[in-house]
Task: inverse folding
């Protein structure tokens, strides 16, 4: 059975049984007056509640201004990250200067900085370098968050099929995500691809 269209009449069980791109969820929220910000998991929960009850969930009111946010953030190897951390141009310039032109922000680095305000930017540099090593050495790879189903599927597919190409993995993923059920990799997915 192919994935149905997402409409206000979609049963919540059907909504939760299929894979949706974050942009599809954001577009649905925008079309129906729901808040569009937050993680994919948060947006999914918001839509599920709306489909279940007809009411949007109560969202906490937050201030965009952080306490003590006056003045520029000091960025140096021995400077604390602080609760005012943002992944802006000054921080990018610092990391590029220390790490090199191949530096790029990663979800892991941004999460590390947000969750460790008392650590230093030197600690953040070490985190980024260790993260890059984990990408090369599969035994050191970090856990993939539950909202990144595509990434987890591709990693699991390639680990189970070392000779397979990335396009083959993506083809299996596209078939898997269009069907009802979970989006985790299974060897049976290879058979499903041949049957399609």
Result:
């Amino acid at each position: 059975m192919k994935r149905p269209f997402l409409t206000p009449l979609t049963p919540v069980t059907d909504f939760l049984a299929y894979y949706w791109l974050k942009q599809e969820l954001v577009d649905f929220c925008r079309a129906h007056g729901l808040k569009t910000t937050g993680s994919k998991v948060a947006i999914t929960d918001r839509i599920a509640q709306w489909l279940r009850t007809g009411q949007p969930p109560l969202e906490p009111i937050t201030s965009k201004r952080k306490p003590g946010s006056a003045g520029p953030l000091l960025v140096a190897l021995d400077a604390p990250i602080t609760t005012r951390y943002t992944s802006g141009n000054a921080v990018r310039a610092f990391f590029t200067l220390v790490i090199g032109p191949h530096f790029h922000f990663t979800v892991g680095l941004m999460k590390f900085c947000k969750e460790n305000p008392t650590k230093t930017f030197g600690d953040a540099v070490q985190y980024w370098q260790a993260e890059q090593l984990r990408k090369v050495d599969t035994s050191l790879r970090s856990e993939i968050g539950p909202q990144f189903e595509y990434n987890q599927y591709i990693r699991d597919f390639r680990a189970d099929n070392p000779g397979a190409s990335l396009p083959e993995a993506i083809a299996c993923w596209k078939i898997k995500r269009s069907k009802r059920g979970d989006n985790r990799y299974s060897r049976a997915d290879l058979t499903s691809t041949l049957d399609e």
Summary: Residues 175 and 192 are 8 Å apart (CA to CA). Residues 149-195 form one domain. Residues 61-68 have pLDDT under 50 and may be disordered.
